[in-house]
Amino acid sequence: MHIPLWREILNDIRVDKVSSEAYSLAKKYGYRAYMVERYVNLFGYDGAKKLLKAFEKKIKPVIRCNDVRVDCKYLVERLEELGFQLKHIRWSIHGYRVIKSPKKPSIGATHEYLKGYYYVHRDSPPLIPALLLVHNRSPSTILDGCAAPGGKTTHLAQLMRGKGLVVANDVALYRLVAVLNHVLRMGFKNVVITWNDLRRLPNKLEIKFKKILLDVPCSAEGTIMFDPSRKRKTSQRDLARIIAREIQLLEAGVKLLDEKGVLVYTTCSIAPEENEYVVTKILRKYSNLRIIDPPIKLFNWSHGVTEFRDMQFHRDVYKCIRTWPHIHGTMGMTICILEKIS
């Protein structure tokens, strides 16, 4: 009898026993116990406590100046006149942290925002994937496989200075409306929007892509500071189903990747099960793939997790990028860069 993929995954990741330490922390901070057991396994009791405390802190939003449409110096001066206080993110040319805001308008309701002068991100790590994929700013055809709501799509289009082509695809039609709105608002003409399940595209498209960005739907466990409901939203069974979809999406991306092409796989989850585990599954299936080092070093990020509980991941997942709330003071994010070698 055929066993569904998610059931196989559940057997791999299931936590049947939770330590008293993890249970105590889970009860105190309002988490599912298996999640906190993961944190204790990764960082020990003291490290897990620091992570949980970091998730309780609010993080100021980040704007990405659209220098295709406006001079960033002018934008900063204009927003400061409105009562905003901005701090430049040193590793990002276009990124600014909103340190202080007036009562009105909100950062997403200014005339400058409506004119497409900037995009509002929840935090700075979402700026990383596009910078890694288009670090040399050379125009090309890029597939953004899970594009909604459009932050990374517009970032890619911006970095290519309106040249080349970004194919922005998503399965959710209502979310593609947001992508379209941002593309039109910010004035990019090098974006094509498609509505499809990425898992079906390898059988529908005859073309291959040299560059692919896959910011796949995940548990969003790295964004608990923005959405505390994530503390309890995902059961272990739910997580197994999410992981199964992530594996299927990444496999579709690999099939759409051209020879010597580069694929950036990323999630806003800190769970190794959604990241190193998924990438390891794909690497074991496709011998013509390898993980490569980031082409540029933006800041002192952390490395990937090579082993977790009784799971041994592919040794090269060490090259993956991680941001941790208690280490970097940001949302949690994981990024792995894959290259098709033949």
Please name the defining characteristics of this protein:
single chain, 342 residues, alpha/beta, Alpha-Beta Plaits, Rossmann fold, 3 domains, nine-stranded mixed β-sheet, four-stranded antiparallel β-sheet, 11 helices, 15 strands, 35% helix
Can you characterise this structure?
The protein is α/β, with parallel strands linked by helices. It folds into 3 domains: 17-55; 62-121, Sun protein, domain 3 (Alpha-Beta Plaits); 125-340, 3-Layer(aba) Sandwich (Rossmann fold). It has 11 helices and 15 strands. Strands 5, 6, 7, 8, 9, 10, 11, 14 and 15 form a 9-stranded mixed β-sheet that branches. Strands 2-3-1-4 form a 4-stranded antiparallel β-sheet, sandwiched between helices. The protein has a two-stranded antiparallel ribbon with strand order 12-13. A hairpin with a 2-residue loop joins strand 12 and strand 13 (311-312). Helix 2 crosses helix 3. The longest helix has 23 residues, at 33-55. It starts with a helix and ends with a strand.
Question: How are the secondary structure elements laid out?
Answer:
Layout: H1 5-13, H2 20-29, H3 33-55, E1 62-65, H4 72-81, E2 85-88, E3 95-100, H5 111-114, E4 118-121, H6 128-133, E5 141-144, H7 151-159, E6 165-170, H8 173-186, E7 191-195, E8 209-215, H9 236-256, E9 257-267, H10 276-285, E10 289-291, E11 302-303, E12 307-308, E13 311-312, E14 321-323, H11 325-328, E15 333-340
Parallel strand pairs: 5-6, 5-8, 6-7, 8-9
Antiparallel strand pairs: 1-3, 1-4, 2-3, 9-15, 10-15, 11-14, 12-13, 14-15
Helix pairs in contact: 1-9, 2-3, 9-10
